[in-house]
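Form 7-S
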Amino acid sequence: MTLISTLLVSSVILSLPAFASVDSDSSKQDAQQSHQNESHCYVDGLSEQLNCGFITVAENPAKPDGKQIEIHYVVLPGIKNSDHTQAFLAIAGGPGQSAIDNAAGFNRMFSKVRQKRDILLIDQRGTGRSNILNCEGEGFDSALAINEADFDVAEETQACLDKIIDSDVTQYGSLNALNDFEAVRKHLGYQKLHVYGISYGTRMAQLYLRHHPEVLSTVTIDGVVPMQQSVLAIGNAISRAFDLLIKDCNSSSLCGAQFPNLKADLDSVDAKLTIAPVISQVRDPLTGEATQLTMTRAKFMGAIRMALYMPNVRALIPHAISEAAKENYQPIMGLYSLTIDSTGIAMGMHASVICGEDWQRMTAEERESANSTYFGSEMIKTFEQSCAIWNMPAVAADFSAPISSDIPILVLSGELDPATPPSWGELAMEKLTNAQHFIAPYATHGVAHQSCANDLIAELVETGSVKEIDGECLNKDVSRNFYLNASTVEAIPSTEQENQQVKPAAQGASHD
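Output:
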């Protein structure tokens, strides 16, 4: 169990598959090394041999003779690459996710891009294989049994800091990481980059635009965190996504009929768990072993929040809420179990970024706004304690200035995004003079992996222009039918309907 159990409900914005399985130990080094720090390797989810390596940099750039850390990278070679001077750099989110651990996902997403371009993945310092700053805790027998209210955030944060005491956590912000990325680019000999950033990775892409525009050909930012925006304003975005879910269900004849009191059910369960958790004996859905379930408000609301990230899992939420209102927490427990340690977030690096770049710039007005929502208030309580211990220096005031650029930029937002709403994409557009912003109506967080946006990105990379890109394909209805019971999206016939066949045509055109 990790600090993530308490922080997950607040600041994590993630990027790639929130429910993906990650094996961080899966790289297998080939004996035939072509260079001291380079080798052929395999990564989880891909059967082909890739090019792997690392460079060594100073942990503190101001102390070049001090502690050295390795920055690891993987190159997915272009299939028909005729221009080895360019590469496509894909940057992961979190903050704290490993790009290399998500190689298979990036490969699927950017198969067209890879026809002519190498795909470059770099584990940002503090993540994956690049001196990861993890906060693994001890003493928790079951994630289902714990009561998050028993966590002492200050104590847990100090324990994490003590565990990684050999690392200077103040050196793991985005600007040092950007310099690492540039060092890798130069090491590999690429003259130009096409940069794709998702979620927190959009901040890194925007910093690239600010500090190294001369090496960029095109940029795509997907699920945008604009420079002007602290990620800690995420509470209002989550509330918006909850409201959209209720609205979508009510707008569907089948979902609305099956769950006519969805908002009231949500509020009643939330109110009940706010008073006290509900304790019961259950079978662990992952191991089948008997265990205690302590259903808390944090688990209930956190499970729904994380389910909002994936359209196919989002479709299960109304059923899970309705059953919880009947005191059947099995469906919610299933959703919660999907989130346990599955995000691959390096929470130490996460804290370095959030505490240095987001926490200290929050105004009194922003804190008041955050405190008006459950997730926002939990975030304020958590980081007030953890950032006091992490003791990160604040970034300069101009860090939050909007990005000015005339480089071709594709801006992507999902209408249903529970983390980075379309309004954040609009904010990023403020001083981008050669950019287009597309909003995918049926997408959540990360438009490229759940729509035709990956084709639009391939077109951008191929043509080097954003002006002719047509985003009409994003409007194709790919919404999922809501599940009306535990196993099917088909309607449950009522007494009056039992002799009639009910067709789910009123909902989306497809479902899982």
